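chain below, 70 aa
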Amino acid sequence: MELDEFWHLIETARSQAEESGTFDQSLVGLLAARSKREILEYQERFDELHGALYRWDVWAAAYLIGRCAS
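prediction:
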């Protein structure tokens, strides 16, 4: 899945959640309408981006932004 498509899917789920329901329900609905291959491609992209953010400096920024709350 291309990065633009990934973020478009996230934004679509976010928009739907504002209108009716929650983000996770909207995202699941959008992914359920896709092929197994597309779902796996989404998961691969998610894992890639999640892994890129799993760094001490990002955690430190989140800690400061969250005012020391976990």
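The mean pLDDT is 92. The chain is about 80% helix and 0% strand.
thats it, cya
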